[in-house]
Amino acid sequence: MPATQHYRDGQRPTLTQFLIEQRRRYPGASGDFNALMLDVALACKTIARAVARGELAYAPGAGSGVGTSTDQVNVQGEVQKKLDILSNDIFIRMTEWAGHLAGQASEEMDEHRAIPDGLPRGKYLLVFDPLDGSSNIDVNVSVGSIFSVLRAPQEAIDSGRPLTDADFLQPGSSQVAAGYALYGPTTMLVISVGNGVHGFTLDHDVGEFMLTHPALQVPPDTQEFAINASNSRFWEPPIKRFVDECMAGQTGPRGKDFNMRWIASMVAEAHRILMRGGVFMYPRDLKDPAKPGRLRLLYEANPIGFLMEQAGGRASTGRQAMLGVVPTSLHQRIGLIFGSKNEVERIERYHREPQEQPDTEPLFAVRGLFRD
Ligand code: F6P
Ligand code: MN
Q: Best of 76, 128, 132, 338 to mutate for ligand 1, by most ligand atoms within 8 A of CB?
């Protein structure tokens, strides 16, 4: 059944209407999930406003501005910006009160957060990166929020026992829903509740997200890739091979020219790829053996991976499907490759054939930009 079946012709459904239509597929659904999604949407609208106010939200004076760092460092050793903390607080405040959640976990909190005593406890877990790409905030480049919804273990719901971090360590294939908000020239919310990927644009006049991009599909092939090339000396051979082959362009083994992009806001890169295809790589590399990748599994790689797969794309560590990885810790880092299916599968193939010599022209094999 198409999601828009019951809407009038020419009418754009709101997020609320869309969720109600989706819920009709599950006659037994309680409505908790939809209410949670609307709370998440409200948190994103509130963060969008804070982001859009920019410097105006602060009194004039040195060091008071939007991009300023706090003196706090998160569990990953990254300096927290004021807006990181504010966005985290907004997510917590707007989603914990209603009785839909059993707990929350976020990039900005060392451990999971239980629902405070006195508030009702529900069956879902919410995992989020409240402000992805926040190192871009002071240069006015798009940032976003990423979220993932899991079910709390049934036995924890039934017994009411306190949650542990381990309850959150579920593979991405268990996600009930995932999505992101993008705070760009327009504010968008892009979600999947397991039935395709749908994009909504915030209509500021009525304060509603309107369905503007139904049933997004990532094209299987692309001529665009995204990677932080300053790390090239740390890349493993399969990644070097892939990038070298792209750089070799029309006269190289791929037989076509590629374009490169790097925004350094993963959520913005994911959005570009959902709109027009492409491949994003923040692979495991040899920079710091203690860090198997840069991005985090539970609240970055898994939700974006869920959206990619739901849109016909693919997400991988390079060695296995991202959604099959069983997490071992809340803030686990992982190599992340996602986007157009044929490109991601090609990179996986290069990982399986590490010994095979690249199929490149000698010129590029010897003097390739990113080759040792
Ligand atoms: O949250 C991490 C993040 O900001 C991503 O949004 C982005 O892709 C990445 O870090 C950028 O990393 P780098 O600074 O290495 O380019
Ligand atoms: Mn992030």
A: 132
